Structure formats: structure tokens, C-alpha cells
Amino acid sequence: MPSLRDEMEKKIMEILPPDAKFSRVDFEGPNVIIYVMNPRYLMEHSEYIKTLAKELKKYIIIRGDPKVRIREVDKLKRVITDMVTKSVGSNVIDDIVVDEPTGEVYIYLKRPVRERGKLEKDILAETGWKPWIIPTALEMGKDLPRSDIDIVKQIQLSTAKERLDFLKKLGMRIHREPIYRDARITVTGLGAQMEVGRSAILVRTRESSILLDCGVKPSSSGDEAPLIDDLDLDNLDAVVITHAHMDHIGFVPYLFKYGYKGPVYMTEPTKYLMEVLLTDYIEQAESEGRVPPYSRQDLATALYHVITLDYADHPTDISPDTKLMLYDAGHEVGSAVVHLHIGNGLYNIIYTGDMKYGPTRLLNPAHNRFKRAELLIMESTYGGKEDVQSPRQESEQRLVELVRHAVEHEGKVLIPVFSTGRAQEVLLVLNEAINNKQLPKVPIYVDGMVLETLNVHLMFPDYLNRTLREMIYDGVNPFLSEYVKPIERARDPEKRKEQVMEILQGPPAVILAPHGMLNGGPIMDYFVHAAEDERNMLVFVSYQAENTVGRRIQQGERKLTVRYYSDRVTLDIKMKVESIPGFSGHSDRRQLINYVRNMEPKPHKIMLVHGEPAKIMNLALTLELQLKIPTVFMSNGESIRLV
Ligand SMILES: [Zn+2]
Ligand SMILES: [Zn+2]
Description:
Strand content: 15-25%
Bound molecules: zinc ion
Largest sheet: 7 strands, mixed
Oligomer: single chain
Shape: globular
């Protein structure tokens, strides 16, 4: 029996004219690569590429045969430098690394570039080498830590050969002929069912098995991990990650530790954020004397299995019967709504991950227009009856007032934040308020991962809203100002204490640091020493999950024992405590309902996840009554058959 590849070659030879000089076809992960001796001809006659894609029903990439590549490395670098200079400007290249065995060339730029994809295509056509353009934001972010960029680069370069082998094998697996003709689709909740945390949803057909998210739960009651022990890792085709928050990515390296060898799909910003967050997760466990669930090596392995996709790009084949698209979710930089297209139009699943259906200072609202949609799996964090957030502007005004109040009373304002999202928004709001003289010139100390992740915002402006995107492309860093003081954390505990005390004993200030739910992280160093002074203020700007220190304080607990390094300290909290829910990166109840109401097309069925039980049940009832769409929810471990 001829293989799928043989049949493809036959078709390609029928379609392509002799002038293109077809040489062979290869699979590279989800992509079908067609090698030709005359790539320029096809770049100039793009109608052939369209016909090929239509006939083969695959996304195809045209590449020059290795025989027609530029041979000398020096010449290659010269040609690339000229092309980059022409399209972006001079002195933009930070580094060019050529990898002969794979035919790839990595081009590191000092600033982000518009139309990166087009420049990559042009370089390929001109040189025959496959370019990867990586913006490092070196120019604007020169004072920011950049270990994530260096580590991802190191992994990328040291595993280029393994990665190519991995992609070849993956390609054979994805592009096999489907075996079963009958349909059967089930969804199993392995986490985040009737709870917030450890998101993990398994979608299975007769042909494939796909895991959506794989997170941990911020909790200390033994229910941190999703229910993945019975997962058949050999038969798992793909892991798809919506965004880089611990409750969605925290357990990904664990899969690799136990033998998973397949791809992890996500956006490019999410990949860098994943490196930052998970390295920190490992370090934090170690500093508290706990054994982390996986090692740095497992994380590195996970990273080189990452395949990145852009928003609303072409449908990507991830198994013989399933295609994947990612769309903007408006929740943090790079966050995605997942669209799984199963069995050639048979069934479409939309999974929102965490999403914000409303504009923010940072991002566009979540996307809700699709070609088809049978099932919508939607988050419900703020789905409860009482979860109506005040308008953005009011929330921003409230934050400015609170900071002003604390500053006038000689206090410090502690804002626990996640490394991305609220942290960047709060910086934008406070910078603006100082510039508009709504606030006196207070120092804003930024500690911990917030700094590392700032770089990711500067590297990928296309993932931000238009205002910020244009500012960054114009060379303005909107997050930093003369008032923003990055803190490089002292490693030594004694030095660290001195560093923190110097800030706390100094003039009034704002301090932004993770962890956003006060479950450890650099914020604890400040909190432990600031909590008992009534002049100070603690302001929550994001969701506090059940059983976290943040939630307990929010609910009124004022005598509290917390973990501090390997000790436990008991605090008598006297600082003021305030919450501003309107800053959330999650949709509130109205936005959740409107997301469905305005969705095109309307889903046939809704499944609610990522919410507390009372909120999920209430939201389900409302959606059924108001929008007449059957709405279901599950417990962890439960499955629903869809087709
Ligand atoms: Zn999230
Ligand atoms: Zn979440």
C-alpha cells in the first residue's frame, strides 16, 4: 500500500510545473514541507501554493532544497544582515546562530519587528535557510532580568538536532491515515471541575487523545495535582496550553518526567512565561525545603517539545482527525481561546481557558467569532450572582485614591500580583496618575518575576492592544518610568531582609510583587514585616482562590500563621485591607453571559469549568434560562460523551 507521503508526492508532481523543480516532501511536526530547487519561482507564483494546500488539505511550507542553500556561513550572515537592515534598521541584530545539520538560522534582534513572518519568508526565499527571528527587547529592556531569554535560547540551540527528530516522528504520527471511520468524542474533567485550579481537560476521539491545560491548584490540602495518574502518556497526541498561569501550566513538566514525548502547543509569549514561572516554582519549593514534583531537566525537556502558534493563524493538524486554532483570550499576554476542529467538520470544541470579554489597558477582549462551534467549555471564576465588577475606570480611580490615602498617612501599599497581567496594568495606571499629578511622586518598587515577564511584553507587542503595540514599536517602554524601581532580589536571606527593611523603613511607597494570592513568593518578605503597622495597606487586585492566605485575609481573618522561608510566623494584621475586583483579568458575570450571547455561531451546548460550585450552578441556570442553551458541569474524574 502506498504511504500517505507517496500519495502526496504524486499529487504534488501533478500540480507543480517543472520550473519549480520539486525535489521531495517531508513532515515537520504539524507542517508539510515541500522542498524545491527553485523556491523563488513558487514565491512569485503563489497560486500553486494555494492549489497545493487545497488539494492536499494540509498546511504546507515551501523550502529550498539544501543543495540550493547559500553555502558559506559568512556570506549567509552578510545577506541576512543586509535584509534585516533594509527592513528594520541598522544595528538591530544581537546575534546570528547558524545550525548546519538542521538548515536553520536563529536571528536574535535587539528590538521587536513588525511583520516578522514576512521577513522570515523573504530570508528563506533569498538564502534557502529556515530562519527563526527572535526579538529579545534588549534595547528597551536593558535594565530588566533576561535569564528566560538566555535559557530558552540555550535550550533551542543545544537541542536543535533532537528537536528536528522529534518533529519528524511527530509529523509521521499526525499525518497517518485515520483508522476508524465512526465517530465518538468524550470529554473528561481531570481538574478545575467545580473548583478553581489544576485545569486539565481530556478530549478523546477513537483516533486521538488531547489534553487541554495541565495545571496545579494553589492549595495545601493534598489536592494540588490534576488526576493524570491514569493518563496513557504513550497515546496522548498533544497537550494544548491556554496561558502561563500555574493553574494551567504548573504540571506540564511532570508529564515529561513520566514519559510523555509529544508536543505542547501554545503561543510564543506563553513559552517564555512558562520558563520564568516554572523555574520559580522549582526554586520556591527548594527554598522552603520541599521536593519539587519535577526537575529543571524535566522543564527543559518540556520546553523543547513546545510548538508555538500565532493567534488566528491557519488550522494546524495536531492528530489525524483534529485541527487546532488559537485566538486571543484577553486574560494575559499570549493567553488563548482554543478551537478544536474534530473530524473534518464533525464537531467543534471551543475552550476559553481564562478570559476577559472586555478591553483592558493591556489587551484586546476575548475572541468569540468562529466558523463552527458545537461545545463551548467556559471558565466561570466570576460567574456568581454577586460577581458584578465595577467599570474599569472606577476601579482605576479607586486604586489611585487608596494609594494617595496610604501615602498621605506615611504608609506603604502592598499589592500582591501574579507575574503577568494585573502587575503590568497597575504599573500603567500608577505611572499615568503620577504624570497627571493625581498622585504624588512615590517610588513604585517592583519585585520578583514581574520584571522578567515585562520583557515578554516588550518582545511580542503583537499580543497587546493597539495603543501599547504602537508605543512599543515606536521604541517607548510604557511600563517603566523614573518612579518605577526594579528590585533585584538578594539571594542571601539576611541581605534580603536588609533590602526589604530599607524599603519598609523609607518614605511612602508602592510595592508590587508576586505571589498574587500571598501563597509564598517575594511579597511575603514585605507582608511579614509590614502587616502589623496600621499605616500600611494591602490591596488585592486579583482573584483569591479558596484556601489561600489571600482569601483568608479577604474574608476577615486578622490573626494568621504563615510560612516564611522554612519557619512559620504568627501575625497580628493591623494594616488596612482593600479589594478592587474590577481589575480582574477574568470576565465578570455580565461579561461571561455576554460572551455567549454575542458568540457566533451560538454553541449547541455549554460546559462550565474553573469556578466554585455555587457560582457554576447559578451561572448554568442563568445561561439555560436566558439564552436557552443546554449547560452542563462535571466533577473531577467524570466524563461526558458528546458524539
Ligand atoms: Zn489565568
Ligand atoms: Zn485559571
